[in-house]
Amino acid sequence: MLEAMNTHRIVLFALLAATQACSGAGPGAGPGAPPPAARPDADRIARLEAIYQARADSLLLNPHEADVHFITGMIGHHAQALVMAGFAPENGASPAVQVLCARIINAQSDEIAIMQRWLRERGLPVPEIHIEGSTLMVHGPEHAMNMPGMISPEQLRELEAARGPDFDRLFLTYMIQHHEGAVTMVHDLFAADGAAQGDFIFKIASDIQVDQATEIARMELMLAEMTTPGP
User: Which pLDDT belongs to residue 138?
Assistant: First the structure.
């Protein structure tokens, strides 16, 4: 949050500097002319910062219901992706799929921790993740495991049992479905009136949307290469 506030201050100072640059060359400017009044700008900055701080405090104390639903659900959603990607080393995944799985595990583990901290700072229920092999336990809000795109227990068992090229094909198919669900969650968040107004929520949702859409395109290409017959 401090980073977001500093960014906001930089923008405010830049706008004020631009305003002064445009108006500073008017009549009376030059040697001996009285310096431009600094106090009005200082007062304006103080008022804008007070407004921004009040808004930030309000978002901290009263987070939007859609924001909380998104963050809570995305924790569970990411957790299932960790389980799916975690099969790769033992299931004979190709090098390309193993690299993809490692990237998913690194990125989504970090995002889970960040989202848990966001909930914890607001005194909200925090889904706690426990993974043992193919078993995923999420302790906390029930809806955390009922999000778009999540694969069924039967699909998860099928993926766990697959080996080699069969694993690659199933993983790519199911993870495309999984990622498309995450993109849907972002669209639903942005469509909710008054949601995603805070810097954190807007940024993490936007990052997830871009990252998952990019990976969907990559996985679709990998899957197409697997299913295209050779010459």
Answer: 86
Structure tokens at 90: 């033992």
- Reported in sequence order, the residue ranges of 105-187 that DSSP labels E, i.e. its strands, are 128-132, 135-139
The 8-class DSSP code of residue 88 comes to T
Match 């930030």 to its residue by tokens: 56
| Tens-place pLDDT, residues 82-109 | 999 999 999 999 999 999 999 999 999 9
Identity (one letter) of the amino acid at 133? G
Q: Where are the beta strands (DSSP E) in the chain?
A: 128-132, 135-139
Calpha distance 158→219 (Å, rounded):
19
Distance of CA 90 to the CA centre of its chain: 29
Residue 18 has pLDDT above 70, yes or no: no
Model confidence at 203: pLDDT above 80: yes
Neighbours of 173 (CB within 10 A): 16
181: closest CA among 145, 157, 156? 145
pLDDT of 21 > 70? The answer is no
Between the CA of residue 98 and those of 88, 128, 151, 156, 172, what are the distances in Å? 6, 26, 20, 17, 11
The Cα–Cα gap between 2 and 199 comes to: 11
Q: Which residues of 131-170 are buried (b: 16+ CB within 10 A; e: fewer)?
A: eeeeebebebbeebbebbbbbeeebbeebbebeeeebbbb
Cα dihedral: 82, 83, 85, 91 (round 10): 160
DSSP-derived secondary structure letter, 109: H
Residues 125 and 115: their CA atoms lie apart, in Å, by 12
